[in-house]
Design goal:
This protein has 150 residues and is α+β, with helices and mostly antiparallel strands. It has a single domain, classed as Trna Endonuclease, Chain: A, domain 1 (3-Layer(aba) Sandwich). The strands form three sheets. The chain has a five-stranded mixed sheet. Strands 4-5-8 form a three-stranded antiparallel sheet, with no helix packed on it. It is globular, with a radius of gyration of 15 Å. The C terminus is likely disordered.
């Protein structure tokens, strides 16, 4: 586990750092990564695998409450929060544990409005299947009528 006091406190700079970490980790896993020019899009990067593109919003969680980390899913600078038609995945880095959650947008937005609570140490929690789920970016779930199929 990493000492969080050594990490970037400024939210904007930590977000940029998390994006770089995501791009490096995704590339290491064989994904092609692209970054849109500027920050006007509701997603931070796109990843491509076998001709399929996914829009990814990168977030990081630094602060812990007990065993859980809270990550804001706000879309700063926009009147409305993230909409499921604007992106495909959230990639959330738990900074101290160097652990990624790769969450389909429908999963992340369905049960929370502005904050998601992730508890990596608790086995069987509702987000457990999304820990280090890089395969979802390579083989996303099939969509039927806009609903994720499981």
């Amino acid at each position: 586990m990493i000492d969080a006091t050594n990490y970037i406190i400024d939210h904007k700079r930590r977000g940029e750092w998390a994006e770089l970490r995501f791009m490096a980790d995704a590339t290491h896993r064989g994904l092609t990564v692209s970054k849109p020019w500027g920050d006007s899009e509701p997603y931070d990067v796109t990843v491509e695998h076998n001709g399929q593109f996914q829009r990814v919003q990168v977030k990081s969680a630094l602060h812990r409450d007990g065993a859980s980390y809270h990550c804001g899913l706000r879309n700063y600078g926009r009147a409305h929060g993230y909409q499921s038609h604007q992106l495909d995945f959230f990639a959330i880095l738990i900074v101290q544990e160097e652990l990624w959650y790769i969450l389909p947008v429908q999963v992340a937005l369905i049960s929370c409005s502005r904050t998601i609570c992730l508890t990596p140490s608790r086995k069987g929690n509702k987000y457990d299947a999304y820990k280090e789920a890089w395969h979802l970016l390579m083989h996303p779930p099939k969509m039927a009528g806009g609903v994720e199929q499981r």
